[in-house]
């Protein structure tokens, strides 16, 4: 008698199962949900920088040969120049110093400063681009919860001042980094005096845990 091997056993209940439906393939990656304890992201609102063109400037000539500029020596001792891209304003002084403000990014501050210098150079001045420096960055953020400002001022009176009759925000002067934080009762914050984004973020990392402890219930 010839021996016959048994037929392979098949599971009819899983005969229609597709390989692509394996459990590990059915897992969909999820984006982590931002919790309430996650710090807010600051938004840069203004960057103030200076640059030295290294030569004496004739402000009357600059005013009469450039667009979007104004010069009234009775009111202000410099020429006010404006750019549309990047949107910025420059205060040009006869000493060759320029103050650029109104931009919202460090790279835009450099670009705007170079554009102003190039405009003045085309008028025949021996312009250089020296001593570029960012002096102030202003940022804002929203904690999305109200703050007990009076209690905060009582506990941190050494670093803060609060006179609601004169100004609605508490002024918190931080030592390290050396910045000033304006704290409003609705949870809005304005950071000023920073020299870089690192200063802004470090200042927020220091102040936000303190403000959470004075959150209104």
Automatic annotation (TrEMBL):
Major place of residence: nucleus
Domain of life: Eukaryota
Annotated stretches, region: Disordered: 1-24
GO CC terms, sorted: nucleus; protein-containing complex
Biased composition (Polar residues): 8-24
Keywords in alphabetical order: DNA-binding, Nucleus, Repeat, Transcription, Transcription regulation
Subcellular location: Nucleus
GO MF annotation terms: RNA polymerase II cis-regulatory region sequence-specific DNA binding; RNA polymerase III cis-regulatory region sequence-specific DNA binding; TFIIA-class transcription factor complex binding
Gene Ontology biological-process annotations: DNA-templated transcription initiation; tRNA transcription by RNA polymerase III
InterPro entries in UniProt: TBP, TBP_CS, TBP_dom_sf, TBP_eukaryotic
Annotated family: Belongs to the TBP family.
Protein name, entry field: Putative tata-box binding protein tbp component of tfiid and tfiiib
Organism: Triatoma infestans
């Amino acid at each position: 008698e010839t021996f016959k091997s048994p037929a392979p056993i098949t599971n009819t209940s899983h005969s229609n199962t597709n390989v692509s439906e394996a459990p590990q393939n059915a897992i969909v990656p999820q984006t982590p949900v931002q919790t309430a304890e996650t710090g807010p992201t600051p938004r840069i609102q203004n960057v103030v920088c200076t640059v030295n063109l290294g030569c004496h400037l004739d402000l009357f000539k600059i005013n009469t040969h450039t667009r979007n500029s104004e010069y009234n020596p009775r009111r202000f001792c410099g020429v006010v120049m404006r750019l549309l891209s990047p949107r910025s304003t420059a205060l040009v002084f006869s000493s060759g110093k320029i103050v650029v403000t109104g931009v919202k990014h460090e790279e835009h501050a450099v670009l705007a400063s170079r554009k102003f210098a190039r405009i003045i150079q085309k008028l025949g001045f021996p312009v250089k681009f020296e001593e570029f420096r960012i002096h102030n960055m202003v940022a804002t953020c929203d904690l999305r919860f109200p703050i007990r400002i009076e209690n905060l001022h009582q506990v941190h009176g050494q670093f803060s001042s609060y006179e609601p009759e004169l100004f609605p925000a508490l002024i918190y002067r931080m030592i390290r980094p050396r910045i000033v934080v304006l704290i409003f009762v609705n949870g809005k914050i304005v950071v000023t005096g920073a020299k870089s984004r690192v200063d802004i973020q470090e200042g927020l990392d220091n102040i936000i845990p303190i403000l959470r402890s004075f959150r209104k219930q």
